[in-house]
Every structure is written in C-alpha cells, then in structure tokens.
Specification:
Helix content: 25-40%
Number of helices: 12
Shape: globular
Strand content: 15-25%
CATH superfamily of the largest domain: FAD/NAD(P)-binding domain
Number of strands: 24
CATH class of the largest domain: Alpha Beta
CATH architecture of the largest domain: 3-Layer(bba) Sandwich
Strand order of the largest sheet: 15-16-19-14-22-20-21
Radius of gyration: 24 Å
C-alpha cells in the first residue's frame, strides 16, 4: 500500500468532514480501493462571511500516484510496543512535568530502573490543594499550580500547540490519547485537552510508568546533587537520604528557583535566558467569538474562538499574546508565599463567560540590568520575584490580584463591553503602572493600540490582571551534544532548563534525551 497526504480540502460548516467519497473524488480514487482518514482540521475565518473548515487527509491505496496529493510517510510511534531489555543502569528523573514524565515513560519502557522525584504531590491530592487555594484557602508551597505531578501545564488549558516540527511529536500525541486524551487532538490544528481531562491523563501516564517498573517519590525535594570527579552520581533528598544513579535527568520546570540557585552555587554552567512578562487580558467569550467568526459566532460546529496577536515595538521588544484560553478563567499561579502570579486555565468545554490570554512583553538581559537586578544568570529570576512580591503588596495581601481596565491602563475612552475579572481570589483595582516598569507598560500600550486595529474593541475594552511572569524559564542550563551539563551524567531537560516552551516541546525534549541515553 502507498500512503499519500492530500492537499487542503474545503468543507462548509455543517458538512461532514469525514466524507470519504468527497475525499476520494478529490484525489481520483475509488472509495473501495482506498483507506482514508482525517489528518488535520482547521478553521479558516479570514473572511467573516465565509468561515469554513480546511482539512487534509491520509489516503492509502495500491495506486502509485494520486492527483491533489503527495507521497507521505507516517511518523514512527516510539512508545507503541517498545522493546524492553533488562538493564542494570539506574535513572533519577527530577520533576514530573511533561519532560520528566515522557523521559521516565520511555526509559522505564525499555528496561531502565527509573525513579521520579517530585517536589509536589501526586495529581489527585494536588487537585484538592489547588482547588482549595482557588476557593480562598491556604496556599501550599509544595503542592500548587506549579508543583506536583503533571507540572505547570496540568492547571492551564492543556494546549498542545507547538512551533517545533520534530517527528517525536507524533509519539507524544499518541501517548496522550492512549492515556485518555480526546482523539480529536490528533487532527485539530489547535489541539487542547483541558484541565478537567488532563488530570486523569497525567494519572494514567503515571500508571504506565509504574506498570513498567518505574517508581515515584512525591512530596520529596532534591536538596543537593552527589558529584564526584565532575560526574553526577545521584541526589540528596530533604529527608536526609541519598539516592544514587547512573544518570540524573533534571526536568524541574521553569519555577524551580531553589534548584536554579543550587546549580549556580555548584558552578554548573548556566546563562540568562530572555523571557517575557506582562498581564492577563480578559474579554467576554461572546466578544472574541464575534470578532473572529462574525455571523457564524454561534454556529454549533465551531468551538470558542481563539486569537494570536503580535506587535514589534522596537528592535528588541515585542508585545504579544500567549497561552490563549478561550472560555477560560484567570487563576493564581504562584509557587511561593506572599506573591501574586496569574495564569490562564480552561476546561475541555471552554464554556466560561470570559476568554483570556497573557499579554506580555519580551525582556532582555539588558532590560533586567537597567531595572537594577544585575547581569548574572539569576538576574531574570530576581526580577520575576520582585514583580510577584510587588503585585502581592499592591493587591493588599491574601493573594488578591491587582487589576485595571484596559481603557484606564491606556488612558483612552472606554468603548465596548465591561468585563468582570474571573480571578477567583478577588482583585484590587489599581494602576498597573505602579507595578510594571515604564518600558514594559509603554510596550503593552503600543501593543494594545495595534491589536485594536486587528480586533475592534480589543484595546478599548476588557480588563487586565497582573502579573504574568512565568511565560518561560529565566535561565538556560547549558548542555553538550550528548545532553550532559557541565557536570557529566546530569542532563538538563525541558522548559525549566531552557530547551522547550510548552507541554509538547517539553515532552519531546524528554523523549529526545531519554532515547539518547538508551541508545548510548
């Protein structure tokens, strides 16, 4: 059988996108002589009077060529029935986010003795801790939106969009589906799982690792690394015990500030990594749907609409939307006490009243130095901490978030809807210019002005809630071609180490490093 990928095929709203006869007619083959399935589906909403689906399909047939299609190779799934060989080597994975889970999943599946050490709680307890905090309860510094099984992405939207083109992405998506994620993530152009479903998906990933012989240590903090003659041989834990291994994978996530400080003190080669800070912007879901879909805003075939906006302010600074959550809420995402950090979260249905997105400005090493936080590798981390602590103070304590209308922030007349902030711990009206540096505020204003031309009312209505600081890791832990850090057998992996940005790219990096270890 030969495999082909079709050119994009247009379907009107209401049409059956799984119409095999229409696809076969498009490529010139009889339905009886072909196997057809949907490969990718997206919404084309550039013309508001002609919103439609654009789909591509995989076609398998005995024919050597097809019209409107090109030869295609199905990507390999490296976690589908991997060959297990009993190995004597031990592996410690520090952190149970996407990078940690997928590296542990692969290494345990092929026969390594794997132990995952996670600072936070298992996902079931973590969910209870997070929900209690959202309702106004006590903050748990070891079990929260940032720390615990699944990592920071578990309590977001579970977005699986990525800018990378690695063939390993297919393995990641297939493993998510095997773990209970909706099959539609395989075909959607903007795939997401949703926090409500992601909790069980993460639990199933954990179970797969355990079934392969892997072990988990929850509520356990790595306090030091065991290093002899420049080689990492294990970790020291907060209960005073030592865990030895042949390989230590550092998958700690972008908020592991204690680990960053520890590595810096040890002399591990690290450097400042540019990131972005800003606020969360909210409009009503109805407003966003109408702005994107026009007269089709309420069509039953369309879900809640999203947007992606960017504006280059000057040579070194851009303002852009990030981690857009259609039909979602703004949530507290701090990992330390007496700090306010905001993030976005959506359930799978994406049916809440508001839609939100991070609205952030890029931050360079020179910026952080000019703000007075130094030039060393941890300067960005200190800048983040400063903004988060200041937001807590301006909010008045108790994890109330500072908030301001878009019109007030930009000093323009309010035009359009009034939006009620969704942040569950409550907001305090303030001037966000008192928290964010003047340069960042200027870039946000310029961005909002530009975005208002693309989405009318975007920059004159809505509400801002601060501060959004955890867009990505503020450090990069250097590694060589074999993925070792400056300490041999200590492998920096994923977003926290500076090599990924989001769930999929983190998982892919975890697979990439794990496969390298297994092959060598």
């Amino acid at each position: 059988m030969n495999t082909f990928l079709t050119k994009p095929l247009k379907f009107k709203l209401g049409q059956n996108v799984n119409d095999v006869q229409a696809v076969c007619k498009f490529v010139g083959v009889s339905p009886s002589k072909a196997k057809v399935w949907l490969y990718k589906q997206s919404v084309d909403a550039r013309k508001k009077d002609d919103v439609h689906f654009v789909c591509s399909y995989v076609v398998q047939t005995d024919k050597s060529q097809l019209k409107n299609a090109t030869p295609f190779s199905l990507p390999q799934d490296y976690l589908e029935n991997p060959t297990k060989t009993q190995r004597s080597q031990k592996v410690i994975v520090v952190g149970a986010g996407p990078a940690g889970l997928f590296s542990a999943r692969y290494l345990s599946a092929v026969g390594f003795d794997v132990t995952v050490v996670e600072k936070g709680a298992d996902v079931e307890q973590r969910r209870l801790d997070v929900e209690e905090f959202f309702r106004g309860g006590k903050f748990n510094p070891k079990s929260n939106v940032q720390f615990g099984l699944g990592g920071a992405g578990t309590f977001s939207d579970g977005k699986l969009t990525t800018g990378i083109s690695s063939p390993l992405t297919a393995t990641v998506f297939n493993e998510f589906v095997r773990s209970g994620a909706p099959k539609e993530i395989l075909t959607s152009n903007l795939p997401h799982i949703g926090t409500d479903k992601l909790v069980s998906v993460v639990a199933n990933l954990r179970n797969s690792i355990v079934q392969s012989g892997g072990k988990f240590l929850f509520n356990t903090t790595v306090t030091n690394f065991v290093v002899q003659n420049g080689v990492c041989q294990g970790v020291q834990l907060d209960d005073g015990s030592t865990l030895l291994a042949d390989h230590v994978l550092l998958c700690c996530g972008h908020s592991a500030r204690d680990v960053f400080q520890l590595l810096c003190n040890m002399g591990v080669e690290m450097q400042f990594k540019p990131f972005a800070v800003g606020v969360r912007i909210e409009h009503t879901r109805d407003f966003v749907n109408k702005s994107q879909y026009g007269m089709f805003a309420t069509h039953k075939d369309l879900g809640s609409a999203s947007y992606k906006l960017a504006h280059q302010v000057d040579k070194t600074h851009a303002c852009y939307s990030f981690c857009m959550c259609p039909g979602g809420v703004v949530v507290p995402a701090n990992s330390t006490e007496n700090a306010v950090v905001v993030n976005g979260m959506s359930y799978h249905a994406r049916n809440q009243v508001n839609s939100n997105s991070a609205l952030v400005v890029s931050v360079t090493k020179e910026d952080v130095e000019s703000y007075g936080f130094g030039t060393d590798c941890l300067a960005g981390m200190r800048f983040q901490q400063h903004l988060e602590n200041l937001a807590f103070q301006v909010g008045g304590g108790n994890y109330v978030a500072p908030s301001q209308s878009v019109a007030s922030f930009c000093n323009v007349q309010q035009v359009g809807e009034t939006v009620t902030p969704s942040y569950p711990r409550g907001v305090q009206q303030c001037n966000l210019h008192d928290i964010l540096p003047q340069q960042i505020c200027h870039c946000l204003e310029q961005g909002l002005q530009a975005f208002n031309k693309k989405i009318h009312g975007f920059g004159t209505s809505g509400v801002l809630t601060g501060v959004e600081t955890r867009t990505s890791s503020p450090v990069k832990i250097l590694r060589n071609g074999a993925f070792h850090s400056s300490i041999a057998n200590l492998y920096p992996v994923g977003e926290g180490a500076g090599y990924a940005g989001g769930i999929v790219s983190s998982a892919v990096d975890g697979l990439r490093v794990a496969m390298s270890i297994a092959n060598n």
